[in-house]
Design a protein that fits this description.
The protein is built from 17 helices and 16 strands. It is an alpha/beta fold.
């Protein structure tokens, strides 16, 4: 969409701004709003962001708030002055949502902000606060201890802890950037002190048991809660396959309505007085059958577009509430599936070679797949561009090293272009 077209449409229809649109998360918000006739602007610090090529949006490069928050805010203020009316703003990644939430007073005159301010978001960002809130409202969690110093490692509770376990930060953004993953695994007690020395400058850490079970035991509740924490949209689903396995992001997921899980998530969000779109992730513990809290993401998540395909368009519900025309989303359709085709094909091929997945099981699992996180017939350019970039990367590596190795395939699927 050309900028002038966006501006013309924004005079008669309240526009939306989607922050960080490099991959499936932001692209999904653009499509979920654009298909409802909302004029959308995609903003990203990466000029190669896939969202810039969507037919539903115009694109603009802006500073990365993780690098220079003030420059990012100045760019938003400049955009706000250009718009014919205040736009609804949708950050899709933590560094963007924290920057906006910290500066609601500064931005609210030029934008409509359908999520909590920093007082609430700060609690949600703190995983210790998440755990303690869960305990207060009887939401099950993995066994968890909080580690503040090396002296805590000698406590009786730590000596009695069962391994393998993980160290998880209470504030995750800097941790992910430093280690390239959200947790560090501790295989046995003999590794505890050595691994702690790598992370002791990361603030309070959670020593947490690993819930057994495969990736298909990971369930999510997606929702939109209004300013009074009343539910306007609710969706539940589960991951079927992850990239990478065990501690990764979804590459294949399905919708499945679980009212008890939805109730637990809403109790927790109400306890935190949350407003906005969120994902609350659980893992079903095969030892007792209980769903145990993994984390809250106070934003859209990678496979949220499955909810829209099932009739629960979280982005549009939030948009309508922000412009003063709220409505309650209908009940979801069950059994539909979402996929990242390129990642799933490459990962599944590797798992077949290792005997972890049979070709028949993979083919039959695709039944019911209705939406791809990147590919879309009504918005073909982002998917085609992503395919071309991946093919070019694979060809370059083949020329350099010969036929692709498993390591090359792994790194290709790691890329979110």
């Amino acid at each position: 969409m050309h900028y002038r077209v966006f501006q013309d449409r924004a005079r008669s229809v309240v526009p939306a701004i989607v922050l960080q649109t490099s991959y499936a998360n932001g692209l999904g918000v653009i499509r979920d709003l654009g298909r409802e006739g909302v004029p959308v602007m995609a903003i990203d610090s990466n000029p190669r962001a896939l969202g810039f090529t969507s037919r539903f949006a115009c694109g603009r490069v802006a500073p990365d708030p993780a690098v220079d928050e003030e420059a990012f805010l100045v760019a938003l203020e400049q955009l706000g002055r250009e718009l014919p009316q205040p736009a609804v703003i949708f950050p899709t990644h933590d560094e963007y949502i924290w920057a906006v939430a910290r500066n609601v007073d500064r931005l609210s005159g030029r934008f409509r902000i359908p999520f909590s301010g920093w007082e609430t978001m700060r609690r949600v960002a703190d995983k210790e606060a998440q755990m303690r809130a869960a305990w207060r409202v009887d939401v099950a969690t993995p066994r968890t201890l909080f580690i503040n110093s090396e002296a805590d490692l000698t406590a009786a509770e730590v000596r009695a802890f069962t391994f393998p376990a993980i160290f998880k930060p209470t504030e995750s953004l800097a941790f992910k950037r430093r280690f390239g993953r959200p947790v560090l695994e501790i295989a046995g007690r003999d590794q505890l002190e050595a691994i702690y020395t790598q992370v002791r400058d990361c603030g309070t850490l959670m020593l947490q048991e690993i819930i057994p079970g495969d990736d298909d035991e990971l369930y999510s509740v997606g929702s939109y809660l209004d300013q009074d924490s009343q539910v306007l949209a609710l969706f539940t689903g589960r991951k079927l396959r992850q990239h990478p396995r065990r501690f990764g992001t979804s590459r294949f997921a399905e919708s499945i309505w679980l009212p008890e899980l939805a109730d637990a998530a809403v109790r927790l969000l109400n306890e935190l007085r949350f407003h906005g779109v969120s994902q609350v992730e659980f893992k079903r513990d095969p030892r007792d059958g209980r769903f145990k809290l993994m984390e809250i993401n106070a934003r859209h998540w990678l496979w949220h577009s499955l909810a829209a395909a099932c009739g629960v368009n979280l982005s549009y519900v939030a948009y309508r509430d922000a412009i003063g025309k709220p409505f309650r989303a209908p009940s979801q359709k069950d059994g539909l599936r979402w996929i990242l085709t390129f990642k799933d094909v490459l990962d599944s091929a590797r798992e077949m070679r290792r005997g972890e997945l049979s070709p028949l099981n993979w083919v039959t699992s695709l039944r019911g797949t209705r939406v791809d996180g990147v590919l879309a017939l009504d918005d073909p350019v982002p998917g085609a561009l992503n395919a071309w970039r991946l093919a070019r990367l694979a060809l370059r590596r083949t020329r350099r090293h010969g036929p692709s190795s498993e390591a090359d395939t792994q790194s290709a699927t790691d890329i979110e272009l």
